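Researcher: We're teaching a course module on how sequence relates to structure. For the next exercise, students receive a sequence and then see the predicted structure as tokens, so they can try to spot secondary structure elements on their own. Here is the exercise chain.
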Amino acid sequence: MTDVADPPRTNFIRQIIEADLASDKHERIVTRFPPEPNGYLHIGHAKSIVLNFGLAESFGGTCNLRFDDTNPHKEDLEFVESIEADVRWLGFDWGDRPFFASDYFEQLYGYAIELIEKGLAFVCDLDAEEMRAYRGTLTEPGRDSPFRNRSVAENLDLFARMRAGEFPEGSRTLRARIDMASPNINLRDPVLYRIKHGVVHHQTGTAWCLYPTYDYSHPISDALEGVTHSICTLEFEDHRPLYDWCVENVSVPCRPRQIEFSRLNLEYTVMSKRRLTELVAEGQVEGWDDPRMPTIAALRRRGYTAASIRDFCERIGVTKSDNLVELSLLESAIRDDLDASAPRRMAVLRPLKVVLTNYPADRVESLEVRNHPKDEGMGVRSVPFGRELYIDRQDFAEDPPKGFKRLVPGGEVRLRNAYVIRCDELVKDAQGGIRELRATLDLDTLGRSPQGRKVKGVIHWVSVAHGIPAEVRLYERLFRVPTPGAGGSDYRSDLNPGSRRLLEDCVLEPALKGVQPGEGFQFEREGYFVADPDSTPGRPVFNLTVGLRDTWGKSQK
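Model: And here is the predicted structure for the students to work with:
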């Protein structure tokens, strides 16, 4: 169950359900989330999960998780398990067990026989290419299959032999007998069953070589489960007449209502499962959970929280109009969540050594620092401070640009939670690169301002003697443009070559020793980061979740 405190926003689907309950059309609401187990779920699926499970929760009903496992060539148990993990992680539960369309294969077969007996389905010998030729176009009606008027007895015999495996794959299909002149192409005698040999189904093994299509199995599965509101995305709007035809022409126990809403289209992202599969298969990314991917597994690995994704789904709302959602809305949702919940730590991502020449070499102080500036309940930690420190190279400029408020030759800056220091000397290598800085600190400035002068800049640091070596992975948007592949171009040409950068010589404060994968922090002045599963006890690996502010637009100018 979710823990969202604020009431969900109203939308047209909620209004439909409220009206149905008020008119006593339904005693109890039942929804469903029906993914096909042929890939990992992405942020678009999260919108549907939050909507379907959220509606059931709000109205005291139930939501079924039902796998549409009718295409065994593309499905795998790995995807089943990943989908279950994603739905649970988002905070939802489906009760005693998941449902599968394959649970109903025998009943679906029986309903197909019922359609044949009513003269509403027939076995067709046209192959796929011939069927396309007979189908017609958007402006021209289709033509009847030459096998459309087979007798009921012949159709029953052929259908039974299809199930028995007597015919080659692709040689015969079972088609609905509706209307080849219909303006809706989905009603032009659509395929209900096709033959598939040589596959082992992850639930039924080799028991079947005859598999129902989604358009046939989905409405009947809904009806068998008592679904009251079958909520799907707008691309299925033209399929609704076929959905209704299926449940109206067989003896199912109820008549669910299909309602469509706009799918999530997100900037700088591809949401097609086919394209996501291509990115993984071609090695453009490092798997389904690569933190640059829009999959729920990838977002989780990148440090997004379930609460932030649910919040994002509520923010964007539910409408009937297609639109392109700004990625910054998703990033804003995670920033808001982590700003309140993430403990603070210091991490130097590009180390530059600073030697404090007036600080004793054998002295080490333990500075007490709050774990969160706004939440005293998070407590405090001790941060060691010594003569040699690391600061970030980006916090020093030998020739500073206008407005630079960090460390410069002869200038002062405050070390976060510590002292004010002044840069006195630059130590360079043979090539002229800055190897280290020599500085002095004002011992009277711990927790107080220096007398007679104002220091504006504050930078973070880590003790050289106590720092922990780490790898940090910086991620930017996977694509360079808001709509990859726009205008018919290959979406791959819009990939951002700088979407992943590795920083291998980072140094973290010692409080991060022993961090566990999945633990998230704000690295002060850098952004929000999460420990990656690749971490080892001696060398943590952190992924950038999101920066402290949106810098993408500026970086692209």
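Model: If you want an answer key for the exercise: The CA atoms of residues 230 and 258 lie 5 Å apart. The mean pLDDT is 95.
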